[in-house]
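Subject: Predicted fold for Na+/H+ antiporter, 526 residues

User T.R. writes:
Posting the sequence so we have a shared reference for the thread.
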Amino acid sequence: MSDVARFEFLLVIISAILILALVARRLRLPPSAAFIAGGLVMALIPGAPSITLDPDLVLVIFLPPLLMSSAYFTVWASFRANLVSILNLAVGAVLFSTLAVGCVTRWLAPGLPWSVCFALGAILAPPDAVAAKSVLERVRLPERLSTLLEGESLLNDASSIVVYRVAIAAFLTGTFSITRATTMFGVLSVGGVALGLALGWAAVFLIRRIGNATVVICLTLLLPWVGYVTGERLGVSGVMATVTMGLLFGWHQHEVFPAKTRRSADAFWEVLTFLLEALIFVMIGLSLHSIAPLDHEIFPTTGRLVGGVAGVVLATIVVRFIWAYGATAVDWTRAALRGIPHRKGRWGEAAILGWAGMRGVVSLAVALSTPEDMPGRNFVLLTTFTLILVTVVVQGGTLSTLIRWTGVGEESEEADGFLLTEYEARARMATAQREAIEKLAVNEAGEVLHPRLLEQYRFREGAATRYSRDPGGLKNDRDAHYAALKGTIVAGRSEILKLHRAGKIHDHVLRRLETELDLQQLALET
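User M.O. replies:
I've generated the C-alpha cells; pasting them so everyone works from the same file.
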C-alpha cells in the first residue's frame, strides 16, 4: 500500500469514527465498544487494506498524550488521600493477577513454559487508562471510587511492564532473579517520577513566561512525548514520567494558564483525545487480521484453543473480583477491630471495582511486542484480543447497570463534613468579589465611580447566598433567569449576523462581537 493510499484509508477511518460516535450516542452504547466493532467490520471487509501495528510505534504515538490528559484532570486531593488504595490496585492487584493467571494458563496449556504463562498474566493484568476513561466518563460514581479506578489505570502500566520484562528475560535466558526484578521496578518507577517532576517544573517555569496562547498549547502537546521518550531513553519509566507531569500540570494549571489559553487548550485537547481514543479502539478491531492460525503444538484442536482462551479470560476477570473483595474484607476487619463504624456500600464498591477492569491499548501493544519465536505467541495474541473485546464491550456496556443494581450512587460533596457544597463555595466567591468591588468602585473622596458594577456584584452575592440556603426552592427562578439571559444572547447573535449578511459590519467586527457572546453563553451554561 502506498503512502497516499494509507492516508486515504486513515480518512476513511476518521469518517467511520464520526459515524460510529453518533450511532453509539443514539443507541446509548459505550463509544469504545462501537469503535472496536467498527474496526472488526472493516477488518473483515473483502479487499480492505491490511494494517500491521508496530507495538512500539502505537505506544509512543497514543499512550503519552492520553496519559497526560487523564492525569491532568485527576482530582489531586482525592488522588493523594487514596494513594495507598491506588497502589494496592496498581501494584498488588497486578502482581496477584499475574501469578494467578499464569498458574491457570499453565494448567490449561501444559506445553507452555512458565515464563510465557507469567508473561501472559502480566500482559492481561493492567486495566487500561484509555479504556477506563472512555467508560467512566459515561457513569456517575462516588469521587473516591472514580479516583481509585482512574489512579489505578494511570500507575499500573509501570508495574505490569516490569513484570512482563522480567518474564520475557526469564524466557530468553532461562533464569529468574527476584533481586533483579525488584531493582528494575525501583529504578523504573522512582526514576520516572523524578524525571516527570523535573520536566514538569521546567515546563511550568517556561509557560509562566510565554504570553502566546498558541505556543503554550503546542508546548503542552509536545511535553508528554518529551517525558515519555526521554524516560525510555534514560532507562526509567516513560509512563511514570508522563503521569507525573500530568498531575503537576493539573495542580498548577489554574495559576499558570490565562483564561483564554485554558479555554483554547481545553478545546484542543478535547478533540485530540477523542480522535486518539477512537483510533486506538478502531485499530484494536483492525488488528484481528494479525492473529495467526491455530498453533497445533499447544492446542491440537480448535475446541481446545477456544476452551483455553475462554478459561484464561474468565480467570482474569474472576481474579480481579477476588482481589477487590479480599481487600475490602481486610479493610472491614481492620475497621471492626478498631471499633470504626462500617461504611455503607463497601461491598457494592468492591463489585464495581471488580467489574470495571477494562483492558485496552497497553495490553494489545505489549502482546504484539512478544518475540516472534515465543511458544504460544498466537494464543497470547488471541487471548489478549478476546479479553479486550469482552471487558470493553460486555463489562463497559453493563457497568452503569451494575452501579444502579448495587445502589452505589454519587456521593454528596459535603459528605466529608469539611467540604463546602458548590453553592456554598459560589456564595463565598460572590462575597469576595463584592468586597473587592466595594474597595475599587469608590475613590479616596468617597465618590462611587462604578455604581453599576457595585450594584451588580451586590446582587450576585445576595442571589448566590439565597441559592446556597435553598437551592430547590429557587430552581424555578434560576431556570427563568437562564431562559431570559439565553434569549438575549440569541437575539444579539441574530442581530450581528443580520448586519454582517447585509454588509454593514466587517468580518473582524463580527468575530469580536461573536466572541463576546460566546463567552457570555459559556459563562451562562457553566
